[in-house]
Specification:
It comes from Candidatus Sungbacteria bacterium RIFCSPLOWO2_12_FULL_41_11. Keywords: DNA damage, DNA repair, Endonuclease, Hydrolase, Nuclease. Pfam families: Vsr (PF03852). GO terms for molecular function: endonuclease activity; hydrolase activity. This is Very short patch repair endonuclease. It contains 5 helices and 4 strands, in the order ααβββαβαα. The chain has a single domain, classed as VSR Endonuclease (Endonuclease, Chain A, 3-Layer(aba) Sandwich), CATH 3.40.960. A hairpin with a 4-residue loop joins strand 2 and strand 3. The longest helix has 24 residues. The mean pLDDT is 89. It has a 4-stranded mixed β-sheet with strand order 1-2-3-4, sandwiched between helices. By secondary structure, it is of the alpha+beta class.
């Protein structure tokens, strides 16, 4: 499909959009937590200058919900056909930051868990099993 807006205007439009996070995927995970009786979690609570999607303070476990596009999922990654260099650099930068954040969390003695968007959609039982194992 042809874009009806010129590149400069499209760039301004996209820059004006502020992310609200991976809300739908996170809310699906919240539903699974409630269904499975998983409690005592906090959402988007800042620790060590990092804001994980979920933390379990008592067990010192943090969960990051990674969207397949934004975090460069090996199974579902796809780079948009326009502005390829920008998107490749953006996603690679996200991946490098993810690694740094995981190191930081581990350094302070917490256990980080990454839950992928596709995992929550296709294999919710496996995701819950992985989370329960980390919490015990």
């Amino acid at each position: 499909m042809v874009d009806r807006i010129n590149i400069k205007q499209r760039s301004r439009n996209m820059a004006a959009i502020h992310s609200s996070g991976n809300v739908t995927t996170e809310l699906n995970l919240v539903r699974f937590f409630r269904k499975e009786g998983i409690s005592h979690w906090r959402r988007h609570q800042k620790i060590f200058n990092v804001r994980p999607d979920f933390i379990f303070p008592k067990q010192r476990v943090v969960i990051f919900v990674h969207g397949c596009f934004w975090h460069g999922c090996k199974l579902h990654r796809s780079i948009p056909k326009t502005n390829v260099k920008f998107w490749r650099e953006k996603i690679n930068g996200n991946k490098k930051r993810d690694i740094a954040v995981l190191r930081k969390i581990k350094h302070f003695g917490w256990k980080p868990l990454i839950v992928w968007e596709h995992g929550i959609k296709k294999y919710p039982e496996d995701v819950i099993k992985k989370i329960k194992k980390a919490l015990n």
